[in-house]
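Final report, Chapter 2: Outcomes

The project's central promise was a pipeline that accepts a single protein chain and returns its three-dimensional structure in a standardized token representation, suitable for archiving and comparison. That pipeline is now operational. To close this chapter, we reproduce one record exactly as it appears in the project archive, with the input sequence first and the structure output second.
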Amino acid sequence: MAKILIAYASMSGNTEDIANLLKSKVEPYHDAIEMLEIEHMDAKDLADYDGLLIGSYTWGDGELPYEVEDFFEELANVDLSGKKAAVFGSGDKVYPKFCAAVDLIEQSLKECGAELVQNGLRIEFTPDTKEEKEQCEQFALSFAKALGNKSDE
């Protein structure tokens, strides 16, 4: 059975809302899902999972939030070869680098050997429109499909 981690950083609750929506859509396919806040994790723990959904909001002018910085410094020393991953995030289009944390996290995961199974999901604030909810649903279903079904395990 594929073991999945949904790890996120959320200040206002927007990224946590996305994480919860993704979890609800992946659960029918994979029931071994754990959700954790990044600031309470060690990067080396990522190696314990088969699938990684990592999410963060973007801070300031395209930076990772402070509660994610230490985690991603540690990540440089973690081998994620054979792990399937995808990244999601929330942001505000008023800033020039909308959801830039998604790009930074994707780059880190690739450098650690993870296989990015799809392009990052970027949502402005929280997924409250029908289109944004559908975007999240498709993202989750694509991720679940990339890991296979629980009936395949």
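Archive annotation: The mean pLDDT is 95.
This record, like all others produced under the grant, will remain available to the consortium after the project formally closes.
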